[in-house]
């Protein structure tokens, strides 16, 4: 089947997205609109100005722009609009389950109440589930370039909303901020019943993945590319079936993996790992989840069987119960059979 023949299958096959930062879905149009509404000064006048700024040399240069854009989001309705725009887009790409990161400290450190953030996101999650039938979980991420004390304060603020938050994560600048820096707050989070994930092995070494597994006791590794540098680690992650949330277009845009034809997702599968495909910060990196799948088809020659494996991996890796996973597996199989049958009729 040609690349073009696979694109409709990618577009229509049910899937889960497990690595997307809600702040990273802020499209330029919304950024400028919200900044104008809220009286926030930005160094951009037009959408083209914003898009021209999307030239990153590394993770830090991206984060500088990312946090600048976040300043435009201020009140409960802003958070609602931001999240609803993503849920609408995800639903249009047949995402059936979305587990979405949000960074409370990126907002509270500029004077926004935690309650403003979580209420706006939760309102959108409830409405999106009713409107689009998409299952949603919110994951609260700690900014690893801030002290653990800040993360612990955020943890305390989150406890009264714990029924709305399925887990905690760890993101922002990885190098120089190893997972062990946050061992205490992750222990507290697990004791409170939160699941745990962490960005590791994106720009940081394989040792950061080891620490995330051993000290933070994560259920998933976000990115995890440098796992492949350590055969013993690769074997452990494979044997324990610890999923990886890979993000092709962000790896390319941030110069972590260039060219995209060298993206290691097939290598991961061949080693028995459980990679998934995700969009990370799609407004900044040039595509949502389907565009990430399509980029892998175009650059790696990903096959139909591999696409199905990755879609099913995303369901396996999600934090939903067995019965819901089984239903999604069946949805994938049914959609695939219908698409193949339709193609046969056309040909």
Description:
By secondary structure, the chain is an alpha/beta fold. It has a single domain (3-346), classed as Metal-dependent hydrolases (TIM Barrel, Alpha-Beta Barrel). The protein contains 17 helices and eight strands. The longest helix has 25 residues, at 322-346. It is globular, with a radius of gyration of 19 Å. The relative contact order is 0.14.
Secondary-structure map with pairings?
Elements: H1 3-12, E1 15-21, H2 28-38, H3 47-52, H4 59-70, H5 76-92, E2 95-102, H6 104-108, H7 114-132, E3 135-143, H8 148-158, E4 167-171, H9 183-191, E5 195-200, H10 206-214, E6 220-223, H11 231-239, E7 243-246, H12 248-253, H13 265-270, E8 274-277, H14 282-285, H15 289-300, H16 304-317, H17 322-346
Parallel strand pairs: 1-2, 2-3, 3-4, 4-5, 5-6, 6-7, 7-8
Helix pairs in contact: 1-15, 5-7, 8-9, 16-17
* CATH architecture label name: Alpha-Beta Barrel
Number of domains: 1
The CATH class, by name, is Alpha Beta
Radius of gyration in whole Å, from Cα?
19 Å
Main beta-sheet annotation: 8 strands, parallel
- Alpha plus pi helix count: 17
CATH topology: the name is TIM Barrel
Number of strands: 8
Name the CATH homologous superfamily. Answer: Metal-dependent hydrolases
Please estimate the helix content: 40-55%
Instruction: State the low-pLDDT regions, or none.
Output: none
The percent range for strand residues is: 5-15%
Mean pLDDT: 95
**Structural class by sheet pairing and helices:** alpha/beta
Strand order of the largest sheet: 1-2-3-4-5-6-7-8
N-end to C-end Cα span: 12 Å
């Amino acid at each position: 089947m040609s690349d073009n023949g696979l694109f409709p299958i990618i577009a229509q096959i049910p899937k889960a997205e497990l690595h997307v930062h809600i702040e990273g879905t802020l499209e330029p149009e919304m950024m400028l609109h919200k900044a104008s509404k809220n009286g926030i000064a930005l160094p951009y006048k037009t959408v083209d100005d914003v898009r021209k700024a999307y030239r990153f040399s590394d993770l830090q240069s991206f984060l500088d722009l990312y946090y600048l854009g976040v300043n435009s989001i201020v009140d409960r309705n802003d958070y609602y609009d931001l999240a609803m725009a993503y849920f609408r887009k995800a639903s249009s790409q047949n995402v059936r389950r979305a587990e979405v990161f949000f960074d409370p400290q990126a907002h509270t450190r500029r004077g926004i109440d935690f309650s403003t953030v979580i209420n706006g996101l939760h309102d959108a999650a409830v409405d999106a589930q009713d409107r689009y039938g998409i299952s949603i979980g919110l994951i609260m991420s700690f900014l690893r370039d801030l002290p653990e004390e800040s993360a612990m304060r955020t943890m305390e603020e989150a406890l009264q909303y714990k029924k709305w938050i399925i887990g905690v994560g760890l993101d922002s600048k990885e190098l120089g901020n190893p997972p062990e820096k946050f061992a205490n707050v992750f222990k507290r989070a697990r004791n409170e019943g939160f699941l745990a994930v962490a960005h590791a092995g994106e720009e940081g070494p394989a040792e950061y993945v080891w620490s995330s597994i051993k000290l933070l006791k994560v259920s998933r590794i976000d990115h995890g590319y440098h796992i492949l540098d350590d055969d013993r680690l690769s074997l452990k992650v494979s044997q324990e079936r610890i999923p990886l949330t890979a993000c092709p277009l962000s790896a390319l845009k941030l110069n972590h993996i260039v060219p995209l034809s060298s993206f290691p997702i097939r290598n991961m599968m061949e080693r028995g790992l459980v990679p998934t495909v995700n969009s990370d910060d799609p407004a900044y990196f040039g595509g949502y989840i389907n565009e990430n799948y399509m980029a892998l088809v175009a650059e790696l020659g990903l096959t139909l069987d591999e696409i199905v494996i990755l879609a099913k991996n995303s369901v396996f890796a999600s934090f939903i119960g067995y019965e819901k996973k089984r239903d999604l597996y069946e949805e994938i199989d049914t959609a695939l059979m219908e698409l193949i049958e339709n193609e046969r009729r056309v040909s």
